[in-house]
Design goal:
Length: 506
């Protein structure tokens, strides 16, 4: 195996301070993708110092010049889509069309950020005083720590970093420990673009490295996408710290409402895509299907048919729909939830927790295989399986009787609020859901996965605060400032405030 390349700090690959190494695994085979160096808090220190120093000059460049580096990255993403898509599939286990789509989504984000550089930014604001010019201007905040998950190992890092960099911030990037090879290629792209030393830094590693970013005094902004547990801990840590900002996007227990007016072809298609694509491992994946009693039996039978036969297999095979789960621990967690559902007394309809030998492709016996698990449950029962995120192909059918408000109440009965969908041909029902569903990403007659970068991406309730990613990330990585300039000879104040200086001599 090749020698690990280490971290990328101040424009150079470096071994770092630590001596420990770790491997990334191909989740479909159990084989090794590569060996990497485990970053330590001391490496984070060095990376933050480099980023802090580089900020001084980087912020002085025009947005347009900064974006030119990003355009080079964009072209490399486009040129290497197939190659990088395959690396994603080998390291994250997503089927190959998803591997490529991950790269395309990254390219879209970079294109958005770089293209935006020539657009007007800020507002020209009226003033009460004719001689005053008033503006809202944006300033970069400084060093941005980007802590990203394995499930979109290329797209999400660019979601965080592209706008941060164009706006004049510098970056310390700590990728998920499961997908370090993808992070190396991201780094190559910045290096090839000749981005100035220290503007972009990579430290490979685990939670201790991520934590060192969060706790570092010189990190101004933390962008985090990942588990609710870690995201809430970051929010708690930084919430009260003056000058710090954390924008976090976490998981969901996302639901799809299928009303009595649904086109059932659309409903099945939407539910299957939302629940099983990426083997249920998207923060926006759906684990709850809320179905009206009039269409329940037919929907159930058709959904069960697909869940029983959906193609689980080698993610490099173009005919595969679902690849494996990311790792053994996660397999244990998802199968644990399948077991828990049984203990909680639900009616199991499909259980492919253990795949048959014939279903597992040759040479892939050590992969973390799982198929769909589908069950019926009482929508009003206080069950853990219908309220906790499993991050797997674990799906509850919840039958309701009543109007769309009833369905929306069931839909909203979760601590989370990320994504959701309604399937209906009735525009009143659709609009009701649009207005009342407690989520950040709402869809009508579509799956609840597949958001595009030119829309805001983030959730409400326990799913997150702010937008670490996609278009609205600009709010996380800049401060809005008010700038007012007087063009008159005298000072005149707003609100009718007297500007006359009165003295005891008057
Ligand atoms: C995630 O799972 O963390 O909307 C992000 C989607 C993708 C992003 C998912 N654009 O499905």
């Amino acid at each position: 195996m090749a020698e690990p390349r280490g971290h990328y700090i101040n424009g150079e690959w470096t071994d770092g301070e630590g001596t420990e190494r770790f491997e990334s695994e191909n989740p479909a085979t159990g084989g090794t993708v590569g060996e990497f160096r485990r970053g330590t808090p001391a490496d984070i220190d060095r990376a933050v110092a480099a980023a802090d120093e580089a900020f001084v000059e980087w912020r002085e460049l025009s947005r347009i010049r900064r974006a030119e580096y990003l355009w080079d990255v964009y072209h490399e993403l486009r040129d290497r889509t197939d190659e990088l898509g395959e690396v994603i599939t080998r390291e994250a286990g997503k089927e190959i069309s998803e591997g490529r789509a991950d790269v395309v989504e990254a390219a879209h984000m970079v294109e958005w950020a770089a293209g935006d550089a020539r657009h007007p930014k800020g507002d020209v604001v009226p003033s009460e005083i004719p001689g005053k010019d008033a503006y809202m201007r944006r300033k970069p905040r400084g060093v941005t720590g980007c802590i990203t998950p394995w499930n979109f190992p290329v797209a999400i890092p660019y979601w965080h970093m592209a706008i941060a960099l164009v706006e004049g911030n510098t970056v310390v990037f700590k990728p998920a420990e499961q997908t370090p090879r993808c992070a190396e290629i991201i780094t190559e792209m910045f290096d090839d673009a000749g981005i100035p030393d220290g503007v972009f830094n990579l430290v490979q590693g685990f939670g201790d490295a991520g934590n060192a970013i969060v706790e570092h005094d010189d990190v101004d902004t933390v962008l985090f996408t990942g588990s609710a547990e870690v995201g809430h801990a970051i929010q708690e840590k930084l919430g009260g710290v003056a000058g710090k900002r954390a924008a976090c996007e976490m998981g969901g227990k996302n639901g799809i409402v299928i009303t009595e007016h649904a086109d059932l072809d659309v409903a099945i298609h939407s539910a299957v895509m939302s629940s099983f694509k990426t083997t249920g491992q998207r923060c926006v994946s759906s684990e709850r299907l809320i179905v009206h009693t009039d269409v329940y039996e037919e929907f159930k039978n058709r959904f069960v048919d697909v869940a029983e036969s959906v193609a689980v297999g080698d993610p490099l095979d173009e005919d595969t729909f679902m690849g494996p789960l990311i790792e053994a621990d996660h397999h244990e967690k998802v199968s644990g939830y399948n077991e828990l559902a049984r203990e909680e007394g639900v009616n199991v309809l499909v259980d492919r927790t253990e795949l048959g030998d014939a279903e597992i492709p040759d040479g892939h016996e050590d992969g973390h295989w799982i198929g769909p698990f589908v069950y019926e449950a009482d929508p009003y029962a206080d069950l853990r399986c219908t309220h906790e995120e499993t991050f797997g192909p674990h799906v509850a059918l919840l039958e309701y009787d009543g109007d769309v408000d009833e369905a929306i109440a069931i839909h909203n009965d979760t601590e989370y609020g990320l994504a959701g969908a309604i399937v209906s041909e009735n525009y009143r029902q659709i609009n009701r859901f649009r207005d009342r569903a407690e989520i950040g990403l709402a869809y009508g007659n579509l799956p609840c996965i597949g958001a595009e970068v030119q829309l805001p991406f983030g959730g409400v309730k326990k799913s997150g605060n702010g937008y670490p990613s996609a278009r609205e990330a600009i709010e996380a990585v800049t401060d809005r400032t008010a700038w007012t300039l007087n063009n008159a000879d005298d000072i005149e104040m707003a609100q009718g405030l007297s500007a006359e200086i009165k003295t005891s001599n008057d």
